[in-house]
Every structure is written in structure tokens, then in C-alpha cells.
Amino acid sequence: YAPWCPACQQIELTWESFAKESEHLDITVGKVDVTQEPGLSGRFFVTTLPTIYHAKDGVFRRYRGSRTLEDLQGYVSERKWEAVEPVAGWKSPSSMMMHGMAGLFHLSGWIRQIHSYLTGTLGIHVWISYAVFVLATLLIGLILGL
Q: Which GO terms describe its cellular component (predicted)?
């Protein structure tokens, strides 16, 4: 979820109720703020918000059902998750591919922080900051090419 997301705000009370009932269902319920954990959103390949996953024994399934408390509880208690196709091996959050994707999300956050530092703290013009990144990209490519 993200704090600014209207759909996430809409499901928030239902999700909190689901979390309170989780003990009766013998599950753990959590939520992750993608603005605070960009690597995790990359690892799970989150493209829409909110995104709900069911995980059991290292197998991940994306929940696409109704977002009512009854349907969320039924998905677990009636074992409806067994009928859902698991996330493909290469797209699984535990795969090497998604570890790499998480790294790219971390890198983009790091680049954004450097850009903010250059433009905000040091007062460098935005286009000069862009030029620094262009030159760094070319230099890194040249070094890797050699």
C-alpha cells in the first residue's frame, strides 16, 4: 500500500479488521508501505495498489478477489488459495530475478536521494544534476566496457 493511494485508504479499515481476526485463522497479516520499502515492492513486482499476496511454505499467490472482510477470511478459512495459480518461479519474490529487481528499486531511490541533495542542499540547477548523472552513466559504461 501507499499512504497517498485512495484505494489503499478505502481498504484500510477492512485490512485492520482482517489483521485482528488473523489469530483465529492461524495466519499472520501485514502491510508494507511501498514508499518506505521500494526494494520489497520491486521484489514482489507491485504494479497496482493495493496488492495482496498469500504466502505459505515459500509459495506466493496473488489475491485478486473481493476486498471485503468476509471474502478475505473465506479465502483463508475455506482454502480458496489452493485453487489460485502460484506466482511463476522466475517472478517469485524469492527468485534471483526479483532480487535483482529489488536492487534496481533501491538504486533508483539512491539516485533520487543524490539528485535531491544536489539540487536541494547544494543548490545546483536541475539540468546540471541531470548532466552529472549522464556523465556518470557514460563513465560507468565505458569502464565496464573496457
A: endoplasmic reticulum membrane
